[in-house]
Fold:
Amino acid sequence: MPTISIRSVSKRFSNGFEALKGIDAEIRSGSFTVVLGPSGAGKSTLLRLVNGLETPTTGEICIGDETVNGRNLRHIRSRVAMIFQQFNLVDRLSVVTNVLTGRLAHRSWIGSVFYLFRKEDIDIAQEVLSRVALTDKAWSRADKLSGGQQQRVGIARALAQQPKVILADEPVASLDPISSEEIMILLREIRDQDGITVVVNLHQVELARRFADRIIGMNSGKIVFDGKPEHMTPSVLRTIYQREGIEDDPSLDMALAYA
Ligand SMILES: Nc1ncnc2c1ncn2[C@@H]1O[C@H](COP(=O)(O)OP(=O)(O)OP(=O)(O)O)[C@@H](O)[C@H]1O
Ligand SMILES: [Mg+2]
Structure:
């Protein structure tokens, strides 16, 4: 299983805005890392760079011994699965078809275009649906499911990809507390049972504390904390959540409520 190495990475967008300012981190294989930080800190940008959806302006990202760049994107995508806040399912397709799209990264373009799936793919889809307890919904239209169920389809799709790494960008931000808990438990189980490296962007401090074995705190494009959950003191939380020029910051109050 590969380590993710983020080396001196910065990202400046075409409008001149610098969203990441010299990020360094090694994310060990099989670890469960939560990236925490206020809105605009650069959390999504960081995940998008790891998955090759964006390219760094300077520095580099490696997964194992492979540098993420335009030339090996297909291979990277077959090893790195993404889970999104808005689930990103194809609403009109069945649950099982959505899960099968997770196999596309492993198939030839022609198979992909015509959605040709082999028996092996269908077996994988069935197995992952049973892992997320959605076997009975396999033939339901994706948009007929609850939010929590849709996110479980998102997880099943990621698992169908048989990835080495799962990147989840605010996977529970659209869910109620009980579904959020279920999703976090599932992600932890996947790390524990499959040894898949999991990186989750969150803004819920309390979930980060309970589920992460490492927390990376970001503010304004920089890493301002990197350590174990038990080392995330109230003063660390203030550093992560402080926003210049904003007094009575509600996101800071929310973070400190759990400190
Ligand atoms: N394509 C882009 N062009 C210009 N600026 C961008 C682009 N994408 C993101 N940004 C800016 O970069 C900063 C970081 O964005 P990012 O989405 O990574 O933050 P985030 O930590 O994920 O925030 P949130 O918690 O709101 O999701 C923000 O100020 C955002 O406006
Ligand atoms: Mg984001």
User: Anything to note?
Assistant: The mean pLDDT is 91. The first helix runs from residue 43 to 50.
